[in-house]
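RECORD TYPE: protein structure
NAME: Hypoxanthine phosphoribosyltransferase
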Amino acid sequence: MIELFYLSIGKYFHTLQKYEINANDGIVFGIFLVILRQNSKNRTMGRVKLKDKVFEISISEAEILQRIKVVAEKISKDMEGKNPLLLAVLNGSFIFAADLMRMLTIPCEISFVKLASYQGTTSTGVIKEVFGINEDISGRTVIIVEDIVESGLTIKRMIETLGTRNPKSIHICTLLLKPERLTVPLNIEYVAMEIPNDFIVGYGLDYNQQGRNLRDIYTVVES
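PREDICTED:
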């Protein structure tokens, strides 16, 4: 696509020359092409800059979706006939939850809860419930859907909260898990990927609210 665009611009320059159109226009387009080539080079390198930090691709969208498919198949098998309620933890899990739900082959429902424990690139360890759960989950099979599990404190708090509402069972599903960061014992049945203790963005995860729209997952590049 970029090559075709360059070719089109080249033909346009030829037209400018042929009809003796102001050469200053050519200078403007020349500057534009330099910027375009640089942006293309940056994309090829697989790096993006968000605010004051640079990130590079570590997990491609194709790999992410393949791993989610495996998890969805396991959930569909385990939860057959149970009509599970997916409780997606906002904001980070919204893309994962959507893709996961579309890959499930069983009847299921979804709702959302918002907890906060992040500032900048590190977890504060302080958990604050922003939005509660409005659904009646008594006797229901519940699957907590997280984007990433690190210390496990958020999930532990959520399980304690849900437990007071008498669900039939509570299960944990996460896109990403950092095993070395876990500080509390958790039975995480559904894990798409285990990753090292790096700060990441993309596919719903953010750096100070930026980067959620990136289709791949990126790891911060140490300066």
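COMMENT: The two ends are 33 Å apart (CA to CA).
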